[in-house]
Amino acid sequence: MKKLLLFLFLIASCVSLYSKSFDFFWDFGTAYIGGNVGKSDTLAPFEGEADIQVLDFRLEGVNGLTFAFSPFNWWCILNKPQEEDIHLITFANFTAAYDIFKHERLVELAPYVSAYAGALEGIKKFRVDCGLVFNVYSSLMWPEEMVDAEETSHLRGELISAKLGARLNDLKPQFYFDFGMNLIALGMILCPSDPKEYEPCWYP
C-alpha cells in the first residue's frame, strides 16, 4: 500500500509540473456490466459483475495522457446467489491512460491502469485493473445543455464505454471485460423527460 501511495504521489507531482499542457474535465460517472474469469476450482469459473463509478475528475493532456480520480467505486459479483454477496466499495480510485488518438476524435482508444483503494471492507482490500478501454463521445446524442456545459463548466462524459484486460482483485488474478454507459445517458433512457420521445416497452 505504501508503494502504491508513493507511485500516485509521483504521478501527481509530474502532473503539477506539466499542468499547462492538460485540460480539466469532469463527469457524473459510468455504470458497467460484464464478467470476469479467474482461477477457480469450480466447473464454471466465469462470474458476472457490475462496476459503477460515481464522479470522474480528469486531466487530459495534448500528448494523449490522461490522469483521473474518482471518490466512489462500487464493484460486485452478480451470479453467486448461493454465497454471500461479493463486493468492494472504494473511495480512492486513480487511473492513468494514454489515448492513441490524443483526444482529437469522438472516440478514444487507450491502454490504462486503474487502482482502487481505501475500501470500506478494510484498508487491505484493493483492486488493480489494467487493459484497454474504448470510449465513444457523441455531441449529437446529448441535450444542448450538456454540449454547452463542456465549454462553460468542463462537464464531458463518454456516451458508451467498453474495456477489457487483466486485474488483481485481493491479490487474485482475473481476466475481465465490461460494457458501460454514462450515468447521465442511462438516466435519460430509464427516466426520459418526454416518455413519447423514446417509447420504451414499459410505457403503455
Structure explained in plain terms:
- The chain is α+β, with helices and mostly antiparallel strands and 204 residues long.
- It is built from four helices and nine strands; from the N terminus they run H-E-E-E-E-E-E-E-H-E-E-H-H.
- Strands 1, 2, 3, 4, 5, 6, 7, 8 and 9 form a nine-stranded antiparallel beta sheet that branches.
- The longest helix has 16 residues, at 2-17.
- The radius of gyration is 18 Å and the shape is globular.
- Residues 200-204 have low confidence and may be disordered.
What topology emerges from the helices and strands here?
Elements lengths: L1 H16 L4 E17 L7 E16 L3 E6 L1 E6 L9 E12 L8 E13 L7 E10 L7 H10 L6 E10 L2 E11 H8 L4 H4 L6
Antiparallel strand pairs: 1-2, 1-9, 2-3, 2-4, 3-5, 4-5, 5-6, 6-7, 7-8, 8-9
Quick recap:
With 204 residues, the chain is of the alpha+beta class. The chain has four helices and nine strands, in the order αβββββββαββαα.
Keywords, separated by commas or semicolons:
204 residues; alpha+beta; nine-stranded antiparallel beta sheet; 4 helices; disordered C terminus
Mean pLDDT: 82
Helix fraction, binned, reads: 10-25%
How many β-strand stretches? 9
Question: What is the beta-strand fraction?
Answer: over 45%
Described by the principal axes of the CA atoms, the overall outline is globular
CA-atom Rg in angstroms? 18 Å
Query: Structural class of the secondary elements?
Result: alpha+beta
What composes the largest sheet? 9 strands, antiparallel
How many helix segments? Answer: 4
Give the topology string: H per helix, E per strand.
HEEEEEEEHEEHH
Assembly state: single chain
Point out poorly predicted stretches. 200-204
What distance separates the N and C termini? 53 Å
